[in-house]
Amino acid sequence: MGLGALGTVSAGILARAGVGFLRLVDRDFVEETNLQRQVLYTEDDARKVLPKAEAAVSRLKEINSAITYEALVEDVNFANIDGIVSDIDLIVDAGDNFEIRYLINEIAVKKGIPWIYAACVSSYGMTFNIMPGQGACLACALGELPAQLTETCDTAGVIGPIASLIASVQAAEAMKILSGNLADLNTKMRYYDLWANRFHEFEIEKRMDCPVCQNRIFPLLAGKLKNQATYLCGRNMVQVSPAQRMNLSLEKLEEKLAPLGSVQNNGYLLRFLTGKYELMIFPDGRALVKGTSDEALARSLYTRYMTTS
User: 21 partner at 20 to 30 Å CA-CA among 7, 45, 156, 252?
Assistant: First the structure.
């Protein structure tokens, strides 16, 4: 899940390895600034403002057309994650925040699906294999959902080589799981810092009081932490989601918004520019509001233009 720096590398490796089915999920679209580290995209994808999932599948089909792909332009959340993972053998995490990773952890534990945690920022990153019922889960390793991080992609950025390294390790572990070579799995959490030339491995003990894998309490799956506006790290952009999934006609919305600003409809999303703000509106009613990190302002803009008569 996620098709940024980590996800594009992992997906490329697994496609070339001949994994039979890849479901690629991402909520975002391609921008020129992604090209420094997100290896499946081109300048043409950015010019066309293509959703990452669609652009990734298009590129992967050119690499290996013999396997099956499914592109989901979705914001993974408590309401849809069960359907997204219901028929898969492994979850490869390439998310960009801890809330989505803790949500993945809950659904994986609940349904008994293996998953591989991976994250990176600046020049360092880590991976951890999670096999429900056999060892520690993410909540065992990291405790409660972190409120915030000391370093983020906003403050520290991320270099391409660390994303490629972490994703390559993750993909190798995925190949072990999918091929049934479980005895060769690494059972430790791995940490790499390419700039400081550091590598560590940590034993993660299964917590007997873990609320998730021991007590099977799933607050994120119950929707208790849902938020209709989410700031996207490093993007000066806020995602605003409707209370209920919509089924918008982008053509009709284009007609409504055309008198109010510049509109571009590529069939996957509608790009609307008004003043210094830019709204990327998807058929499910979700919008990415670019030009602000203020969630209240983003919600206000969303309400103004999505209810335009």
Answer: 45
